[in-house]
Every structure is written in structure tokens, then in C-alpha cells.
Design goal:
It is a single chain. This protein has helices at about 25-30, 35-45, 50-60, 65-75, 110-135, 140-145, 155-170, 205-209; strands at about 20-25, 80, 90-95, 95-100. By secondary structure, it is mainly α. It has one domain: Winged helix-like DNA-binding domain superfamily/Winged helix DNA-binding domain (Arc Repressor Mutant, subunit A), CATH 1.10.10.10. The longest helix is centred in the middle third of the chain and has 26 residues, at about 110-135.
Length: about 210
Amino acid sequence: MPEQKPPEVTGFTRPTSPDDVVISQTDAIKAMTHPLRLRLLGLFHPGVELTATQCAEQTGESVASCSFHLRQLEKYGHVERAEPHGKERPWRAVVRGYSVRPDLADPESWPAAQAFGSMFVAEQFAALQRWLADAGRDDPAWVYATTQTHQEFWVTRDELDDLSRRLEELTEPFRGRAEDPSRRPQGARRAHLFGAVWSEIPDPEDEDA
């Protein structure tokens, strides 16, 4: 019996920039599936170099804990050592951005990607909750410029894929402002976009109806 090849699937969080990479290897996905490691990766914006001590100051964790998790991220190619500055040995991100996509040929990749996705959503939800709890202190004009929305609609698979890609591309005009302050308009703030697009899994009984 000929070996069955996994189906070709496009989409599924593919990168939106040549500078982004797809992470599909099970071990590399698992290496990212830790709240502190995800927070550490979030600190290393393009052009940013940080020591373990600086990471500890920004995350509230111990220097030893940050050092350990940075080494684990280094092991799987997510961060690397930057040029030493005197006695300081800073770290930097290896890639500008990443996209997690399970490898259809590796059965273990699916649960690894699911675990990462669950943790990622939980971390982003927690960040949004922290903002909501503190929003009363902010300028109302900035608060009214934000949104939380939910839409439900019927689409084909290709239409859903197209919507996902367009959602990912929304922030493309703002790329480069993190590493180059001169590109930021006066009054600009750091902002966050967290979105998810998915389809409901059909109930077999509904399909037979």
C-alpha cells in the first residue's frame, strides 16, 4: 500500500513578512510554550538588546529564571547572544517575527501547536483584562479609539483564509516604528492588536440533515 502523504494546506498562521519565520518543529514549539518565555520574546522588539538583568526588571522574575529561559529559547533558535558591552552580555531576537504552524507530517506537532495556541490566547486575554481594569485612568479619547468586537458569518474555506491573511496584514503600515523612533508620529503610543479567525467544526448530525 503506498505511503499516504499529508494533505497540502495553505494558510494557518503563515507569516506576513519575509522577515518572519514559520515554526513547525515540535521541540521548537514546545520551547515557546511557557508564559515567561512568551513574555521574554515579547520584549525583544527589532533592534532591542537586553541582558537577563534587564529582562528580570521588566518581567518581575528573578535574573536566574530569566537566564534559564533565555538559554532554552537560544537552544531552539529563538534568541541569540548579541555583542558584549563591557561586562554585559545582552541577548537579541533571531527573527523579526514568527508564526506557529503544525507540521502535518508530524503527529506530535498538532498537540504542541494546540498547547502553544491555548497559552498564547490566555496570555493575550490576560493583557487585555489588565488594560480594561486600568482604562479608567486613561484619556477617554484613547479609550474610545479602542475596540473589542465579535462577528459571526458564513464563509467558504478560501474566504476564511483570505480574511485571516488580511487581518494579519493590518499592521503592516506600522512596521519599523519599534526599532526606529524617528518613524513614529508625534504622540504615538505602543498599541496591541489581538485577533482570531476560526470556523466552527460541523456537527455530523447537522451535515447529514
